[in-house]
Amino acid sequence: MEIGLGVAFTVLVPLLCLGVPGGLVAVLIYCSRRARQRRMAYCAAWAAHHGFHYLPSDPSVLAISRQPPFTSGSGREALDVFRGTFRETHLHCFQYRYRTSDGENTSTHDYQVVAISLPAMRPLLDIAHENSLSRRFDKDLQFENQAFNDRFKIASPSPRFAYDVIHARTMEWMLADPRAHAIRWRFEGSWLMTFRKGPLNPEEVFYYADFLHQVLAQVPKHVWSDP
Question: What is the pLDDT of residues 119-142, one digit of tens each?
Fold first, then answer.
C-alpha cells in the first residue's frame, strides 16, 4: 500500500534525530515523484479535454529551433509535450528544460514553448525587445519607423524575408498591441513560436496561440509563395 506524505514525514523525523540524513533524501525523492505524477495526470486530463495528444516527455520536439535557448546548456529535455490542431494549424507546446553548471553548482532553466505551423518553410526571423544594452552593443535590422526601432530588436539572416513580414501596417500593429511589447516570437523553418521563462502553464497555451495566429495574419500571402 502506498504511503502518504504525512507518513513519510513521520518516518523522516526519527531518522533525522538518529543522524540518518539519507531519510531526508528519500522523502524528497518521494515528494518529487508524487508531484510529477500529479502533474502528468493533470496534463493528460487537460489534453483529453481539448483534443490534444500528450506525452510526458518527447525529445524530438527540441528540433523546432537551432537557436538559443534551445542550444543552451546540457541535459536538454522536453517535458509535458502537447500536439494537436488549433485554428487549422498544427500546434505544439511543451516545457523546455536545460541545465548549466559553474563547476560547483548546477542550475535548472525552464521555458514554456508554444508553436504553430507555417504554410511553408522560411528563414529565421527573431523578434525580441530592445533594452539599453542591446541598443548599445547589438546590431539588428533597421526599419523606417524609429519608434519601432527603439522598441523592437529584429534579427534575420534574410533581410528580404524580414522586411516582407514586418511591413508598415505590421509595425503599427506591433507598436499598438500590448502583447507584442511583452511576448517574444520567432519564425524558423516550419514554425512560428514563442517562448518565455518558467514552466509550462496549459491554461496559457491558447492565449499565446491566439497571438501567434494574429502575427501570422499580418504576413502578406506572397511571402508563402515566393521562392
Answer: 999 999 999 998 877 666 678 999
Closest to 183 (Cα-Cα) out of 126, 107, 128: 128
Report d(CA 206, CA 139) in Å as an integer. 33
Residue in the block written with cell 506525452 = 55
Compute φ and ψ for 145, nearest 5 degrees. Answer: -100, 110
pLDDT digits (tens, 9 = 90+) for 32-86: 888 989 999 999 999 999 999 999 999 999 999 999 999 999 999 999 999 999 9
- Quick check: 123 and 157 in contact, CB under 8 A? yes
Rounded to whole angstroms, the Cα distance separating 217 from 74 reads 36
CB 92 within 8 A of CB 208: no
Rounded Cα gap, residues 9 and 30, in angstroms: 11
Could you tell me where the DSSP H helices lie in 18-122? 22-50
Rounded CA-CA distance 47/186 in Å is: 25
Sorted by sequence, the CB contacts under 8 Å of residue 214 that are 6+ apart come out as 177
Instruction: Give the global pTM.
Output: 0.86
Q: For the chain, how many residues are written? A: 227
Across 155-182, b (16+ Cβ under 10 Å) vs e yields: bbeeeebbebbbeeebbeebeeeeebee
Distance set, CA 68 to CA 171, 195, 223 (Å): 25, 11, 25
**Rounded to whole angstroms, how far apart are CA atoms 95 and 196?**
10
